[in-house]
Amino acid sequence: MLRALVLRAPGINCDRETAYACRVANFETDLVHINALRQAPERLLDYAFFVIPGGFSYGDDLGAGTLLAKNLAIHLGEQLRQFIDEGRPVLGICNGFQVLVRAGLLPGYDELGAINRAPTKPGRDKSGPYTLTDNASAQFECRWVTLSVEPSACIFTRGREGSIQLPVAHGEGRFVLADATMLTQLQANGQIPLVYAKKSQQNNGEATAYPDNPNGSAGNIAGICNSQGNVLGLMPHPERYISTLQHPHLRRTREGQGDGLFIFKNAYEYAKQRERVAR
């Protein structure tokens, strides 16, 4: 049985629903607190899938995800990089996406050269080459959004085309880059698997305005992956839409699969294939 580790930390509040989504996708899933991993960091390598769920880790007092990112980098940096280098899937959702960016693991720590430097200062510093910062609306955004699934290297969106719907709930979800050449490079590398789209249609290269793009992210970015495709960070919450019963506007007489479940199922199929090859 393939095992998934869903991280717990002070302030994280989406861990149980994320663990449930992993179980629905057939992972044997454990909720593990960051303090337990700090005491035994090699434990991470017992798992086939690592998920950092959403919430408000450590209250986000110094900027979204900063303290949890520091914890991971200092206490689990070696094991986490080995985990990624071996091709095992890593998923960061909302605050978890912010953690991966703050830790320098997204867009990736060795593929993109200058892009792959963590912000020069912690907290709400915007001087680094990339970061997630306050929404352009300067307010918390909680709504359902339409996403376009783009061609990319991402294993989590493999085999999926067109548009999907997922909910967002964040105050600091705007992905910004120091200049447009970085956006072009991410696109060329196939590292932008999900973008905010206008309702009922794909972007076709056009800018998506608020509220369809709820945070004002550059290039309408809703999620990015590393160039290997096994690390994905996204602001929308796939774990909150694994069943059609969770959608407020669908009128279904029987339960069906929600748009977020394929992300977890793809992680499982990829991990299963990777394990088969390893044998």
Briefly note the CATH topology name.
Rossmann fold
Number of strands: 11
Instruction: Give the amount of beta strand, in percent.
Output: 15-25%
Helicity level: 25-40%
Could you say what the CATH architecture is?
Answer: 3-Layer(aba) Sandwich
**What do we call the CATH homologous superfamily?**
Class I glutamine amidotransferase (GATase) domain
Strand order of the largest sheet: 2-1-3-4-11-10-9-6-7
CA radius of gyration is 17 Å
The SS-based structural class is: alpha/beta
Low-confidence stretches: 110-127
Count up the domains.
1
CATH class placement: Alpha Beta
Biggest β-sheet description:
9 strands, mixed
Written account of the structure:
- This protein is an alpha/beta fold and 279 residues long.
- It has a single domain (3-278), classed as Class I glutamine amidotransferase (GATase) domain (Rossmann fold).
- Helix content is 25%, strand content 20%.
- The chain has helices at residues 15-24, 34-39, 66-85, 95-102, 180-188, 261-278, and strands at 3-8, 28-33, 49-52, 90-93, 130-133, 141-149, 163-170, 174-177, 194-196, 221-225, 231-234.
- The chain has a nine-stranded mixed beta sheet, sandwiched between helices.
- A hairpin with a 5-residue loop joins strand 10 (221-225) and strand 11.
- Helix 3 crosses helix 4.
- The two termini are 14 Å apart.
- 50% of the residues are buried.
